[in-house]
Amino acid sequence: MKLRRPVIAGNWKMHKTVHEAEGLVKDLILELPDVSNTDVVLCPPFTALYRVAELVSKTSIRVGAQDMHWEKEGAYTGEISATMLRGVYCRYVILGHSERRQYFGETNQTVNRKAKTAMAANLRPIVCVGETLEQREKQDFKAIVRSQVIESLDGIPADQSGELILAYEPVWAIGTGRNATPAQAQEVHALIRSILVEIYGVKQAKKVRIQYGGSVKPANAAELLSQPDIDGALVGGASLEARGFAAIVRAAS
Questions:
Q1: What global pTM score does this model have?
Q2: Is 241 among the catalytic positions?
């Protein structure tokens, strides 16, 4: 039996106006009237964060952002700080998502700076790692994932590691309709766990939750989440519809 509490996070990406977000959240609250044994996190666009936080304030659902800057403030046009996110009641923040790496030049080093800043501001970072299709086909994926984990977590002490969440997202399975088989996903989750053992030791490594992200749907959620080292899901497209997302939450529960 797993001792780690499941965490299901919905990454809305660049979807939903504030009005649309209101409708989705209200439907989701009706679908999930009582969630006591799973952490549920909604990650809307920046524009909807405050309103979503208001709507879920009397529920167990929490709010997360999709990115942030590593500086507290400054001349960084278009960026958002950890302090700003805390000001709109964020508790989590996604860092290093493959789309940020692909389109906006995110690196392990910038993810590391952001993760340290997030934790200093009492935000829980969801640190994303994962390989491309080319890297998987070349059998380079284990080395890629290893470097991503080690470099992204560099300098984060063991006594803070329990606040971390890692998300394994095979890039080739994001938004493609393809997903890693439960065995493939578990293989990499076990690898990540072993790397955490190297960094933090067995006791602390067992506390870190590792999500799977990559075309998670109600149809495949239960089998994925039953794997011993998969502690939740970072859900993309399926988080944009209340009934489907709620079904994934129930699969975790």
A1: 0.96
A2: no
